[in-house]
Amino acid sequence: MKVNIFVTLKDSIADPQGNAIHGALKQLDYKNVEDVRIGKLIEVVLGDISKEEAEKQLQEMCKKLLTNPVIENYRYEWVD
Amino acid sequence: MKVNIFVTLKDSIADPQGNAIHGALKQLDYKNVEDVRIGKLIEVVLGDISKEEAEKQLQEMCKKLLTNPVIENYRYEWVD
């Protein structure tokens, strides 16, 4: 079972890395780029457990280790 | 127009950050995690251009600035 976890900064949190890339794209003459935000993509392969159990574990993992709930949001998507 | 760009390391490239997270998850007793790979999620908002033009610009941006084609793959997904 494979799952993609998307971790993004909350909207209220400044994103200096995104701003830097935005600036660089402007300098490269991509004038119609309006905003850039950078997040993380975490691809996790899970062994032999039920989908329910996997969902439960995933939520725990995200809260305990993979994200910082104070400044980040996450969502995930089963790949297969 | 919003687009999500997913940048991942090629399969043949070692991912020490992913390995570190895999190790940490094991120590937290998530024994059925088989693999972890870390990538980047780049959310880009584009202004008023046609979809064709946007596609062309996106591919250019990815090759020139957003990814390292030697070690990374990318794909993207239109959000709206």
Automatic annotation (TrEMBL), chains A, B:
It comes from Alkaliphilus metalliredigens (strain QYMF). Its main location: cytoplasm. Part of the FGAM synthase complex composed of 1 PurL, 1 PurQ and 2 PurS subunits. It comes from the Bacteria. InterPro entries: PurS (IPR003850), PurS-like_sf (IPR036604). One of its GO terms (cellular component) is cytoplasm. GO terms for molecular function: ATP binding; phosphoribosylformylglycinamidine synthase activity. Its EC number is 6.3.5.3. This is Phosphoribosylformylglycinamidine synthase subunit PurS. It is found in: Cytoplasm. Belongs to the PurS family.
